[in-house]
Amino acid sequence: MRHSSVIPRRVAAAAVSVVLASGAAACGPEDAGAKGGTSGKAAGAPQKGGTLTVLNSEAQSDFDPARLYTSGGGNVPSLVFRTLTTRNREAGAAGTQVVPDLATDTGRPNKDATEWTYTLKEGLKFEDGTPITSADIKYGIERSFAAELSGGAPYLRDWLVGGDAYEGPYKGGKGLASIVTPDARTIVFKLKKPEGEFPFVATQTQFAPVPKAKDTGAKYEEHPVSSGPYKVVENENDGEHLVLERNEHWDPKTDEERKAYPDRIDVRSGLDEAVINQRLATSSGADASAVTTDTNLGPAELAQIGSDKALAARVGTGHFGFTAYLAFNPKVKPFDNPKVRQAISYAINRTSVVNAAGGSALAEATTTFLPEQKAFGHTPYDHFPAGRTGDPAKARQLLKEAGYPDGLTVTLLHSTAQNRLTSPEVATAVQEALGKAGITVKLDGQEPNSFNEKRWSVKDAPGFFLSRWGADWPAGGPFLAPIFDGRQIVTNGSNYNHAQLNDPAVNKEIDEINKLTDLKAAAARWGALDKKIGEQALDVPLFHPVYKRLVGKDVKNVVISDWTGVLDISQVAVK
To answer: Which string of DSSP letters, residue by residue, matches 296-327?
Structure first.
């Protein structure tokens, strides 16, 4: 869900890995019957004990806190790695809040939010019983800068003073001067510029403590030292099979978020998605106490489940901050003409697009770029009102005004991946809608790697393509800044500012919002900025994905927040 300078230089990819591992979106689905909630109440209160089985398609590879790219501490990783702050483990909108984890609060900023101070709770211990200190957190962050441990979120490299030049502790053994530990329980971060959303970044696994004496570099992932309720006892084939058992030195009195009901957690990956859903539906043997953290239900499966009330009761619905949209590159004709972009905005038939994405159960039509949650600052707007099915007549009128009275022909880049986001089905729906407005659309389907290389390239980006974005945390910053901040245009790497917008007024407003530590006030400003940018028709928001996942029949206490959109494994209990 993933950037830098407020930036997700990998959001599109990472966000998409957490939720999209099943072909859905960027941070996962899970749920419990409604927009997040709990299940299994009829069976009584959740109890400790038993084994929870996790059936996944993607392996939990790179199980090292420095290399993981997770928001809120991740799902399975969050059972082993505690961080300074974490996500609130509650259903729905309440789950979008950042709360203390290892720290006593969410951080204390100085006047201009360029310095953040944290105090650790008392009584924190690693799995071997040794105390967790501020030096362990400082070292854990520093090792994430090492080239050997690449893959984690890049925010600290961009935000910390000296972070852009730091190469980690393995080269020369030097520490990072902008992280100060005046005593064993205090840690201070010195930033290059104001960052009011720093508490959200402190949920990333890079903030997990790592004891320097136990650091084995690239091999650390084989047995990372736990600070959470579970420790790793088996890690086979780079995370394909993980077994977690209780960490006896974890003190629940210091951890208000993780329930840690099961005694053992058995994570098995590399499975076919259809097999996962079938096993969860059948729920025989150990599968009765099983969940998935990366596999969604598709339209066909939902249709089958709909006629079975018992199965339907085990389907959870989740919402994550993610938007599928049509992107324009105004550097390419005819998309340099605002009226052409407006015409396409009017011509889109969102009903057909939603159907192509799996139907209204799996996609919610939108006219705003920001997801429809308060945490992001969602502000309703529809600058080009065309109803659910589009307004071809209005589109034709605008094309005429743009100098194309006889229509025009354009090419739409899309992925060949069957992900129901940027896939052929969605592209075809766009093609058919624009055709009614006199716009002939030629489809250019590319395999995923080629598709991403083109849409993320400043040099070779086409003028018109399908795209998607998911935020690293539930706020407007990691959603709007990577897409519309002109200073984040990347000419020699992955560029997410598809429109290559470099508006001084937009850049300034982003900086002003970043100074705010009042997250509600910041959210309102992000929403207003989204509405203002939307007037330029630099993109056409299409829909926000909805995640549907099945759980085994004996799984209880399913909690799904709007932070992740998926079941929170730290809350689950089994019979």
So the answer is: ---HHHHHHHTT-HHHHTTEEEEE-SEEEEEE
- Residues 6+ away with beta carbon under 8 Å from 448: 415, 416, 417
pLDDT in tens, 189-238: 999 999 999 999 999 999 999 999 999 999 999 999 999 999 999 999 99
Using the predicted structure, report yes or no on whether residue 461 has a pLDDT greater than 60. Answer: yes
Q: Angle formed by the axes of helices 424-435 and 338-347, to 10°?
A: 100
Nearest-angstrom CA–CA distance, 56 and 114: 40
Alpha helices (runs of H) in 211-272, residue ranges in sequence order: none
Which amino acid is residue 212, in one-letter code? Answer: K
209: which 2 tokens? 């403590």
3 state SS of 160: strand
Position 245 pLDDT exceeds 80: yes
Place of tokens 């060949």: 416
Pair type for strands 51-55 and 290-291:
parallel
Answer for the pair 548, 360: CB distance below 8 angstroms, yes or no.
Answer: no
257 has a pLDDT exceeding 50: yes
Mean pLDDT calculated for residue range 174-184: 97
Do 273 and 294 form a contact (C-beta atoms < 8 A)?
no
pLDDT at 374 > cutoff 90: yes
Distance of CA 268 to the CA centre of its chain: 22
Does residue 292 surpass a pLDDT of 70? yes
What pLDDT does 281 receive?
Answer: 96
The residues that bridge with 413 in the sheet, in sequence order, are 444, 465
Q: Name residues whose C-beta falls within 8 Å of residue 476's C-beta, 6 or more positions apart in sequence.
A: 370, 376, 377, 513, 522, 523, 525, 526, 527, 529, 530
**Structure-derived torsion over alpha carbons of residues 488, 493, 499, 501, reported in degrees to the nearest 10:** 30
Nearest to 243 by CA among 215, 272, 270, 263: 263
Cα separation, 388 vs 260, whole angstroms: 45
The rounded distance, in Å, linking the Cα atoms of 324 and 457 is: 19
Q: In the structure, what pLDDT confidence band is assigned to residue 265 with cuts at 50, 70 and 90?
A: very high
Q: What is the DSSP string of 449-513?
A: HHHHHHHT-TTT--SEEEEEEE-SSSSSHHHHHHHH-GGG--SSS----TT----HHHHHHHHHH
Residue with the bigger pLDDT between 11 and 573: it is 573
Q: What's CA 426's distance to the chain center, in Å?
A: 22
Q: Are residues 28 and 19 in contact, defined by beta-carbon separation less than 8 angstroms?
A: yes
- List C-alpha distances in Å: 175 to 144, 167, 171, 188: 12, 10, 10, 14
Burial of 49 (0-12, 13-18, 19+ CB in 10 A): exposed
Q: How far apart are CA 113 and CA 258, in angstroms?
A: 29
DSSP code per residue over 509-532: HHHHHHT---HHHHHHHHHHHHHH
Task: Say how far apart CA 240 and CA 246 lie, in whole Å.
Answer: 20
Tokens of 371: 């997801």
